[in-house]
Amino acid sequence: MKKSAITAAVLGLSLMLAAAPAHAATETSTHTIKEGDTLWKLSQQYKVNFEQLVKANAKLDPQNLAIGSKVVISAATEKKASKPSAKSEAASQSVKAQSVTASNGTVHAFSDKLQVKATAYSAAASENGKWGAVDYFGNPLKVGTIAVDPNLIPLGTKVYVTGYSHDGLPSGGMIATASDMGGAIKGNRIDIFVPGSSSQASTFGIQDVNVYILK
């Protein structure tokens, strides 16, 4: 009788354990692309880091997400406030402060300086496709908007651009935001928005410019 009771108890416990849901250390889910979806919108919807979401879906073209395709949403990409390591803190403290003076006399601290090839684009429908005259985040195009390769300059980065020559842009240099992307903008290239027509933007040509990554 006692043996039967113990056996029943063990059997009951085994069934309870078998029925308990298993939780993986990290969970990976997918999102099926619908009309109007962008990786930026999905990063906000699922509360994940945008840059990590882009990297996790490197095979997808962020500018041309095909409806019905799958986007990997991983728990590993969740936004977390990471504490800098002692090594990284020491390295950052050892780097001498760098700054650049804007054409209006304002001094800006920067972390890196890039030399890139620049072209220009306008708000013309022929240059912006179905998205219209807005940047990647849906904001209207304006002076100070630049398109970048996010693998080189992360989207949202504030920069100071110098070395260009164009009547539609501030003389001497300008503060800009990396808020747009383009299919042809890969690697060491940027595309600068300029007001006016497409033909006016084309007069910009290809220019060598300096891009200061502001802190």
UniProtKB/TrEMBL annotation:
A biological process term (GO) from this entry: peptidoglycan turnover
Transmembrane segment boundaries: none
UniProt-recorded name of the protein: LysM domain-containing protein
GO cellular component, one term: outer membrane
Annotated Pfam families: 3D, LysM
Keyword Signal: yes
Molecular function terms from GO: hydrolase activity, hydrolyzing O-glycosyl compounds
Residues of the signal peptide: 1-24
LysM domain ranges (all copies): 29-73
Organism superkingdom: Bacteria
Listed SUPFAM superfamilies: Barwin-like endoglucanases, LysM domain
Alphabetical list of PROSITE patterns matching this protein: LYSM (PS51782)
UniProt keywords, alphabetically: Signal
